[in-house]
């Protein structure tokens, strides 16, 4: 019999509850107990200070308080967010904080901890695990899909669908008003979400930090020319996706980069149109609008892929614990679930997190970029 702790850490995403549910279900089958640590590693601190009771997580065999025929429906995997909360995003700088977290783990007498997190959380939790001698297994989650060594993290697929749908929806208002719609997509320093959703949602231009680290005069002129050509050839509206990681003309991070680009494009196209003529004008002068999709990208009913990924990752994590094979990152590679030793991969993950880059290219074969350009 094992006592397993589970926590979610860092930015939430769809599929966290599906992982928690699968862990509790599979652990129960094995006769193990699962303890949900609320509010990330902060839960350990509150627990040692007696401010919080940490209870065993159980799935009710005969359902929740749902009415009528819905009695017994297992809703958890359909819900976005994290029932445990996902607060701790900072590094426990103070020694006392670290000590309290470690004491919390010990006081709960856990045999192992499943941490669900992205590369930032991994960086922090791995250090805590080393200091506290924890038996750790990590399940990767993030809409950014930027955890190195795994092709997919839980949450990415749902976010990709959400952004794709938003682009589709925006197409019609853009078309009706003959506008250029500039859409800012999350991803932190990575462009996976923008590239995938941009292609699936039919964007005309996709700017990602891996290919366009910052806006330049050349980028603007090229886009104006492209838009003008579009307008002459067949249509008067366009959709532009810009990943939030692309920096402004001054190479600074810009939280409103879509707005900046929309303004710059309008200004540049008007200027080129008056000085250079028809090549930059299209049929008439362009009008632009910016849209920041924001945290809606982290919401929504988890997609079937994310629910399945959550489930197979949870099973793998518990199997690793069953084999007493600890300090592993569960990963998705070539269509199957594997795991990697944290000790081996942490230097690279820490480097990615600190340098704000990921060695895994967004598009290793250049296939998607070619598709987008064709
Ligand atoms: O890492 C997930 C993510 O949604 C990024 O895409 C985004 O830059 C960031 O988190 C936003 O963080 P917060 O919720 O703290 O604003």
From TrEMBL:
GO terms for cellular component: 6-phosphofructokinase complex. Its cofactor is Mg(2+). The keyword Metal-binding applies. It is an enzyme of class 2 (transferase). It holds the Pfam family PFK. Keywords: Cytoplasm, Glycolysis, Kinase, Magnesium, Metal-binding, Transferase. InterPro entries: ATP_PFK, Phosphofructokinase_dom, PKF_sf. The keyword Translocase does not apply. GO terms for molecular function: 6-phosphofructokinase activity; AMP binding; ATP binding; fructose-6-phosphate binding; identical protein binding; metal ion binding; monosaccharide binding. It comes from the Bacteria. Residues 3-321 form the Phosphofructokinase domain. Pathway: Carbohydrate degradation; glycolysis; D-glyceraldehyde 3-phosphate and glycerone phosphate from D-glucose: step 3/4. Its EC number is 2.7.1.11. One of its GO terms (biological process) is fructose 6-phosphate metabolic process. Belongs to the phosphofructokinase type A (PFKA) family. PANTHER family: ATP-DEPENDENT 6-PHOSPHOFRUCTOKINASE 3, PHOSPHOFRUCTOKINASE. This is 6-phosphofructokinase. The lineage of its organism: Bacteria, Bacillati, Cyanobacteriota, Cyanophyceae, Oscillatoriophycideae.
């Amino acid at each position: 019999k094992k006592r397993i702790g589970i926590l979610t850490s860092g930015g939430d995403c769809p599929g966290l509850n599906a992982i928690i549910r699968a862990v509790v279900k599979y652990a129960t089958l094995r006769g193990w107990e699962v303890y949900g640590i609320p509010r990330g590693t902060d839960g350990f601190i509150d627990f040692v200070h007696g401010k919080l009771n940490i209870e065993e997580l159980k799935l009710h065999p005969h359902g929740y308080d749902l009415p009528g025929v819905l009695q017994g429906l297992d809703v958890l995997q359909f819900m976005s967010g994290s029932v445990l909360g996902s607060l701790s995003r900072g590094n426990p700088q103070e020694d006392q904080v670290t000590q309290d977290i470690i004491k919390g783990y010990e006081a709960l007498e856990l045999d192992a901890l499943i941490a669900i997190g992205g590369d930032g959380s991994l960086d922090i939790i791995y250090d805590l695990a080393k200091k506290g001698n924890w038996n750790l297994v990590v399940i990767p989650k993030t809409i950014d899909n930027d955890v190195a060594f795994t092709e997919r993290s839980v949450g990415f697929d749902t976010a990709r669908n959400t952004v794709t749908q938003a682009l589709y929806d925006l197409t019609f208002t853009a078309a009706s008003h003959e506008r250029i719609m500039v859409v800012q997509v999350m991803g932190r320093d990575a462009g996976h979400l923008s590239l995938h959703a941009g292609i699936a949602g039919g964007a005309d231009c996709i700017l990602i930090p891996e290919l366009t680290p910052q806006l330049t005069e050349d980028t603007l002129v090229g886009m104006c020319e492209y838009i003008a050509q579009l307008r002459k050839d067949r249509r008067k509206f366009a959709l532009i996706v810009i990943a939030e990681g692309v920096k402004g003309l001054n190479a600074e991070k810009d939280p409103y980069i879509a707005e900046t680009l929309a303004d710059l494009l309008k200004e540049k196209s008007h200027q080129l149109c008056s000085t250079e003529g028809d090549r930059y004008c299209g049929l008439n002068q362009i009008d632009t609008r910016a849209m920041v999709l924001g945290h809606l990208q982290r919401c929504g009913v988890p997609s079937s892929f994310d629910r399945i990924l959550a489930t197979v990752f949870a099973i793998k994590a518990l199997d690793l614990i069953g084999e007493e094979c600890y300090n592993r990152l569960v990963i998705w590679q070539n269509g199957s679930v594997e795991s990697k030793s944290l000790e081996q991969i942490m230097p690279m993950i820490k480097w990615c997190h600190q340098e704000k880059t990921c060695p895994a290219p967004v598009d290793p074969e250049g296939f998607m970029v070619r598709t987008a350009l064709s």
